[in-house]
Amino acid sequence: MKKQGFDPEPGVFPYTPVPPPGPGVEPEPERREDPDRNDDPDRDPRHGRRVSGKSKSSLEAMKEVGSTPVPEIKSNIHCLTIIGQIEGHLVLPPQNKTTKYEHMIPQLVALEQAPEIEGILIVLNTVGGDVEAGLAIAEMIAGMSKPTVSVVLGGGHSIGVPIAVGTQYSYIANTASMTIHPIRLNGLVIGVPQTYEYLDKMQDRVVRFTIEHSKISEEKFRELMFRTGELARDIGTVLIGREAVDVGLIDEVGGIGDAVKKLNSLIEERRQNRKEVPLQ
Predict the structure, then answer these.
(1) I need a surface site. Which of 30, 240, 270, 271 has the fewest CB within 10 A?
(2) Active site residues
(3) CA–CA distance, 259 with 240 (Å, rounded to integer)
């Protein structure tokens, strides 16, 4: 019995057989997928493959970074960027550009274990930030067994100084600057001897790490940190390009090309040393 308002198509459940063609009527040919058809707008006519998503990714890249997609290359060097303000235990406002230590530390652990990565390039353009977070990142970089090279572009201020010198070799651009100043505290500060003792110990940690991983002496570094004429403006001592090299803080003046070339030489040197070590 046929239900009212339900008219099934032929060949669809409930099954109704398609009537055979009458005299003089050609049967409808069976439809097959033609791989050479070019009526699909998402199909590449040269290879016959679908390229859906290609235009969408290009549009997304234009929207996000204002340019076409960055060419992907397979490299044995990983570039790690430290930008903006180094964020510590307190979350900074959303309008601040930040480098979060909880993102950096797992990346460094993964890079240490990744067999395809042979060298790490650290690019800095930071105003500084949380002292303990910056020191944690600097210690992680200094403890890497793989070759590391840093390059300061724009600025490597405050706690960015230990991060810049924590690599095996460091560069600074001609126009880049680095600010050395005493440790400061934000918020309410209780004026008791214990507070000043805590500040001294925190400052000693920064000084000790910096002089151990650079050519600057402790006397010179402390003299730059407490230079009274500059401190009157509450910014500390500013070193620009060549000045950071002259005092022994940074190894050489250079840019990205110099840093990559140096990193490749360190990688090759590490390969040779590993070949020379006899197998046990």
Answers:
(1) 30
(2) 158, 181
(3) 18
